[in-house]
Design goal:
elongated
Amino acid sequence: MITKLPRWVFWGGAVLAFSAGCVNTAALMGFTRLSVSHVTGNVSFFSAAIAHLDIKSSLFIGASLISFLTGAILSGFVVGQTSLKLGKSYGRALYIEAFLLLASYFLSKVAVKPCPSKHGYQATAIDV
């Protein structure tokens, strides 16, 4: 167990927290209107979509929730540690995350269009 973290770990964590906030803000203000860091609001949107029998939004928001859970599980496998230990596993996880963020950006420019909802929340649909 690490009792005192090096200063660069503190600043690295601050940069990562800022980056996570930027990604979450882009998702909230951008094309999904769904949070990507704290999913409690998304669960509320999901239950509201089910209550209103809005199948399209239910599927989209449900896929978002399953994606969050899958990402958390996969990152646990990539890091493979139960406590904080400095090492290459975190770097590998960050490179994978950076690649997926870039891929999602380019995919959003190609295949996603806004899909307004009649119940006050918005989701997106892929134009197939």
